[in-house]
Amino acid sequence: MPSPHERLMRRGGSWMWCVKTVKWFPVIFIVSVILWSYYAYVIQLCFCKCTKLCCSPSDASQYARLSTNLKAFVTVVSNIQRVVYIILYHTFLFFFLWSYFQTIFTPIGKVPSQFRLPASELDRLMQAESDEAKIHVVKRFAQNLPVSNRTASGAVRFCEICQHVKPDRAHHCSVCGDCVLKMDHHCPWVNNCVSFTNYKFFTLFLGYAFSYCMFIALTTLQFFIKFWKGELDGMTHFHILLLFFVSIMFALSLVSLFGYHLYLVMHNRTTLESFRPPVFPIGPDKNGFSLGRFNNFQEVFGDNKNLWLLPLYSSLGDGVVFPVRAQHQSNLYNSMGSTHNRSDEFKVVPLVPPQPLQDSVVQVV
């Protein structure tokens, strides 16, 4: 069954496709900045060569004067330094782009069909005459579903747009037009929801983007100092000097964002949950999903240390069922080892799209 967003796209026609195209503008801007930074660093800084001196070394005075003036046009002189810069630059760039495009093109985790109200239950919901009757219909349908989160009033969470019960930590994204598993936020700079399926990639993207900017800033700092002292021609090295300021600007914004998301990872929270704590049957608890810092880290980055720094999927779980702290556990959770579904027939979205649906057994560390 198509999602509400897909149905809207079909009805909207060309207008909706225009809106969809506009959403890519922030990504195009970021890619354009990266391409310009590549030109400024690799071409202007590492490969731009000066013309040879047009006089004989025998003319000592003229040769010395031209040699002094030529220093204003020289960037990286040493071949060894140039090779080191190029290798390190392309290494940072590779991991930066890899994690960035993984964040962009990884599909969001969608709610399994088992959470959608069947036609008979939906008719009862529409015919309910009071809010209490509607809550009772949803609660009865959700009694065999693995959900522990509630609304502020204590009711089972239900999306009226998608017409299904919301799994724990899932939220409806108005931009994507669908409910998203473990939604953190919708990021226009990646034109995608940061959620269960790509949260590791997003965190690595922030880290590698910060490293990329800091590497550029540190290796171009010497040329800014020379420019400040009047030893470097500003117009000739305009791209390099501008690259220094742009890298510093992006690094300052990225370091705070990267640090904040590392904090969220260590506390097993999403951005939405940091502003509005998840509500459990016994009440709201901002640490309801926290299992300890190392376990929280492994839930996002996995238990294979070799994959922690690689933009490859290694997160634990299925995005539908999450282990919770002891006070929120029911017979759904086995705190000693694994998390099992109540129903053997219940199936979840795959860990790595687009693998086939599998019976959910979520490993908990």
UniProtKB/TrEMBL annotation:
It is an enzyme of class 2 (transferase). Pfam families: DHHC. Coiled coil: none annotated. Its main location: membrane. PANTHER family: PALMITOYLTRANSFERASE ZDHHC16 (PTHR12246). GO terms for cellular component: membrane. The chain crosses the membrane at residues 21-39, 83-101, 201-225, 237-260. It catalyses: L-cysteinyl-[protein] + hexadecanoyl-CoA = S-hexadecanoyl-L-cysteinyl-[protein] + CoA. Residues 157-275 form the Palmitoyltransferase DHHC domain. The keyword Transmembrane helix applies. Its EC number is 2.3.1.225. It comes from Frankliniella fusca. It is found in: Membrane. The DHHC domain is required for palmitoyltransferase activity. This is Palmitoyltransferase. Keywords: Acyltransferase, Membrane, Transferase, Transmembrane, Transmembrane helix. GO terms for molecular function: protein-cysteine S-palmitoyltransferase activity.
